[in-house]
Amino acid sequence: MASYNKITPEIAAQLRAVAGNRFYINDGVDPNYSHDEMPIYGKHMPEAAVDVETTEEVSEIMKICSANRIPVTCRGAGTGLVGGCVPLAGGLVLCTKRMNKILEYDMDNLVVRIQPGVLLKDLAADALAHGLMYPPDPGEKTATVGGNISTNAGGMRAVKYGVTRDYVLALTVVLADGRIIELG
Ligand SMILES: Cc1cc2nc3c(=O)[nH]c(=O)nc-3n(C[C@H](O)[C@H](O)[C@H](O)COP(=O)(O)OP(=O)(O)OC[C@H]3O[C@@H](n4cnc5c(N)ncnc54)[C@H](O)[C@@H]3O)c2cc1C
What is the pLDDT of residue 109? Predict the structure, then answer.
């Protein structure tokens, strides 16, 4: 594994300046952030965690961590089965669960714009309430759509409708160095 640095009090202060009381360190970190739903990957506590609320916060946090060689593990709802959100290298867990807003529907083009922490079950129900169907339907409905996109989740309806990637038209992405890019 690559060598990383520890989160010093100075770095913690920088991260706290970005996220305030949504930045947690040491004993303040939720123990659930140490694992996903597959026990074989074990439990690995990060040094710190942050519940982000905006793209700009993610960008600022990534700039700080990149400049200081702090490993960052992104986490949605932690329902994964392949250890993707398990912070094996320690460092910082960056959780998107508070970015859970469904922003707008474009009914002319049957498109919805959402934040990454929206839960699959909430998007599916909200789309239905708008007379639409969101087809991707993996078994775990409390996963975030960001996690579904990252894992390209499928499910029973994939045979007829395709998988998550077939329903993503555009993404706002924060790169490891904090740059924000628009895709699609
Ligand atoms: C009971 C059960 C049934 C399931 N059934 C199916 C199924 O039928 N078909 C199927 O395909 N899958 C299935 N899955 C797996 C499911 O697709 C994943 O659990 C889900 O997609 C992960 O979403 P999450 O929000 O929990 O992500 P997490 O587990 O938190 O993270 C998963 C990965 O996504 C990354 N990630 C999360 N959010 C972001 C983001 N915003 N930006 C960048 N990276 C991000 C994480 O770093 C990690 O690598 C099932 C899982 C369970 C527990």
Answer: 96
